Amino acid sequence: MMDGTLVGLAAFGAVILLLAIRVPIAFALASVATIGSFVMFAFRTGTFTPERAIKPTTSMVFSNFFDLIHSYDLSMVPLFVALGHIAYRSEITTRIYDAARVWLVRIPGGVAMASVVGCGGFSAITGSSIACASTMGRICSPEMLRMGYDKRLATSSVAAGGTLGSLIPPSVLFIIYGIFTETSISKLFLAGILPGLLTLAGFLVVIYLWVRKDPASAPTFTGEIRRGAKRRAALKAWPAIALFAVIIGGIYGGIFTATEAAAICVSAAVVIGFLQKKLTWDGLLRSLRETALQSAAIFVIAASAKIFVAFVALTGVASALGESITAAQLSPVVLLAAIAVLYLVLGMFLDPIGIMVLTLPLMIPLVEGYGFDLIWFGVVIIKLLEIGLITPPVGLNVFVIGNVVGKQVSIDQIFAGIVRFLALDFVVLLLLMAFPIISTLIPSTMQ
């Protein structure tokens, strides 16, 4: 009989090779898992009998694909994606930035701070880091460049702020993690609140210290803010605050599930958009079309990953790896450090969803063997993926901002500014690892 561990390790090597030559993650996972499963079933009797492998292979592939696509939890992905697109076209997400800008513009570096706050508000509606960076980058970075902000600050603050979409609920990454680990997505959402706010506050501190050390990097605002402008700007931001309150308050209070919260907020966003005459029928149709395309891509990746997970279970490579690490008697601290290094390295080259679906089949049995809380571990993983979005040489958010600003700012300049925010991210990561209560406090009190 063929050694399943060797087949499993060869499969992981094949996937990494395919990804290196730019094969889409879904095709890489599904094709390797299908071929690997066929080989395993064909050698089940000790001799190669391909005719006996066809039926069990096709059964495994199609049943796992079907089960994933018909997952109830996965239905919240298109709902939250739609919420983000509809809220953007209704100008709900940008009102947070507008309000923050009016309130903070007189503070040195205030517009950069408002950009980070705006990213946090956008993240609280959309749940997508790259969408957040792309949208807020078009609004914030050009404005700061026109005002004379340091090019590094004007771009890196938005690139870093965009990563908040990974932690601040709702988060697509939390949804995928919850599905594959069979943990409560509602609790994962709640677990991301404090880490997300901690990161946001840290970014504001970074901007404050940057501008204090180099006042020329953020010119002082010399314009006039009319009386009552702050109050009006704050009042205009009420739809975004209300939607976030419905999501978090409803989940925390046990009033409804995360999926129900998403459905309610999508309906509310459509009504608000039409009532405020910011959303048109054409805009709604465009939002739904973009939602369908984005959701389909996520569904195909998730379904392919589900097939790959079944294949990994068939090979037994996960349990073999766990036994090897247990025999090595690694301490929990060393294990966490090794996992962090792995994710940081992968984050330099792969997108967050790809990293997650590729590694979770091995990571989850391993950390369960060490008795780690999967809610807390999920927050740590998402934070690592968040860091990967701005880590050179392939920080996706950095390149998104680079595409927005064009030739005005080079990629090297953006990465030069990112260093300060990365340092803060590593501090937050260490705090999350050292003090799990930061992640588990709110979900532990959930009704």
TrEMBL record:
How is it placed in the membrane, per its record? Multi-pass membrane protein
Q: Which family does it belong to?
A: Belongs to the TRAP transporter large permease family.
On assembly, the entry states: The complex comprises the extracytoplasmic solute receptor protein and the two transmembrane proteins.
Keyword terms: Cell inner membrane, Cell membrane, Membrane, Transmembrane, Transmembrane helix, Transport
Q: Which PANTHER family match?
A: C4-DICARBOXYLATE TRAP TRANSPORTER LARGE PERMEASE PROTEIN DCTM (PTHR33362:SF5), SIALIC ACID TRAP TRANSPORTER PERMEASE PROTEIN SIAT-RELATED (PTHR33362)
Where the record annotates domain TRAP C4-dicarboxylate transport system permease DctM subunit, the positions are 12-436
Q: Does the keyword Oxidoreductase apply?
A: no
Q: Where in the cell is it found?
A: Cell inner membrane
Q: What is this protein called?
A: TRAP transporter large permease protein
Name the domain of life this protein comes from: Bacteria
Q: Function of this protein?
A: Part of the tripartite ATP-independent periplasmic (TRAP) transport system.
Q: Which residues cross the membrane?
A: 69-88, 153-177, 189-211, 232-252, 296-321, 333-362, 414-438
InterPro entries given in the database record: DctM, TRAP_DctM
According to its UniProt entry, this protein's organism is Roseibium aestuarii
